[in-house]
Design a protein that fits this description.
The complex is a heterodimer of chains A (142) and B (187). By secondary structure, chain A is of the alpha+beta class. Chain A is 16% helix and 39% strand. Chain A has a four-stranded mixed beta sheet with strand order 2-1-11-10, covered by helices on one side. Chain A has a four-stranded antiparallel beta sheet with strand order 3-4-9-8. With 187 residues, chain B is mostly helical. In chain B, α5 runs antiparallel to α6. Chain B is globular. Classes of the chains: A alpha+beta (142), B mainly alpha (187). At the A-B interface, β10, β11 and β14 of A face α1, α2, β1, β2 and α3 of B. β14 of chain A pairs antiparallel with β1 of chain B.
Chain lengths: 142, 187
């Protein structure tokens, strides 16, 4: 059964994923496609960030199988402090923002940027309104 | 009704000349550390928050009579800010703004993970599994009313063993304390 992998901005399936206890092993190509992380010589990388793994971690979290590199993404997420939620029945995994992301840490008063659609599907970005004052009102119909 | 369909009638009921955006994954709530709606932020020309996380209703509608009341006092404050910018008396001190929009904690991040997973599961027809994830989010962050209201809205309070009223009594304030709205100087 394929494993469904969710991140803050993607939903995808990993058909080759392997479950072993608490571990979720992903082949490097599927790792990149579903989570954005990738095993490289310098560490486990995403964008400009590379996380070098100490030897004991590397041997626990990385493996060579079937001529490919694999990562235990669940174990790795725990190591880098990426929040994980998991549903067993559907084998769906959610991986929260990584260490490189802002994670709602408003350490300055700069308004975090975001991009969202309107009813017609047109995308709008907060930073498009730079140079104007913005009243940002959050509401719901509950 | 779910997602955009649930909000369409509200958005289309008023002729808006500003963008009204859909945020099914609660991205903005996460980025701005809000726990309930309404939540209003003022962002200046350089992208800096100058008044933050204010639980203000701009319009309130009486559910029985349907009569709408516009919050004129608040709109006057907005107009004052538009005219006077940083010297408006309604702009809050940076320290106070910082305190209101504060940093998210670890429990909130983990709760968000469960909430996001629950949202996905519910949307894909796995309601029972979704409820389990929402419960875990609420255990970690019982005071996050966005989570509770959305979870109860997708199912019902019985699934959580606590009614909204009970939660309000045991968990504590439903809304953030509104920011003060100083009286405009006379004349």
């Amino acid at each position: 059964m394929p494993v469904t992998i969710l991140t803050t901005d993607s939903e995808s399936e990993a058909t080759g994923a392997r479950r072993e206890g608490d571990a979720l092993w992903l082949r490097n190509d599927e790792l990149l496609a579903t989570t954005g992380w990738e095993i490289k010589p310098e560490g486990v990388c995403r964008g400009d960030l590379c996380v070098p793994l100490p030897e004991d971690r590397a041997s626990a979290l990385m493996a060579e199988r079937d001529g490919a590199s694999w990562l235990d993404i669940a174990g790795f997420a725990g190591y880098v402090g990426q929040d994980v939620a998991h549903d067993d029945a559907t084998d769906t995994w959610y991986f929260g923002p990584g260490p490189e992301e802002q994670r709602g840490q408003l350490t300055s008063l700069e308004a975090p940027d975001f991009e969202l659609p309107d009813l017609a599907g047109q995308m709008h970005r907060l930073s498009d309104h730079r140079g104007k004052k913005v009243v940002l009102a959050l509401w719901a119909s509950w | 009704m779910r997602g955009a369909d649930a909000e369409r009638e509200f958005i289309e009921a008023v002729p808006l000349d500003y963008p009204s955006l859909l945020d099914p994954r609660f991205v903005v709530s996460e980025l701005y550390n809000t726990r309930n709606v309404p939540a209003v932020f003022w962002i200046d020309e350089s992208g800096v928050i100058v008044r933050g996380n204010d639980p203000v209703y701009l319009v309130r509608r009486n559910r029985e009579t349907g009569e709408a009341t516009i919050n004129e006092r608040y709109l006057e404050a907005v107009r004052d800010w538009v005219r006077n910018g940083p010297s408006s008396i309604y702009v809050t001190e940076a320290a106070e703004t910082q305190q209101r929009v504060g940093a998210s904690d670890e429990a909130n991040q983990q709760a968000m993970a469960h909430f996001r997973l629950g949202t996905y599961l519910d949307r894909h027809g796995h309601h029972e599994q979704a409820v389990e994830q929402f419960k875990r989010a609420l255990e970690l962050k019982p005071e996050n009313w966005n989570y509770r209201r959305q979870a109860y809205n997708l199912g019902n309070a019985d699934e959580y063993g606590v009614s909204m009223q009970e939660a309000i009594q045991t968990v504590g304030p439903f809304y953030a304390v509104p920011l003060e709205l100083p009286e405009p100087p006379a004349g």
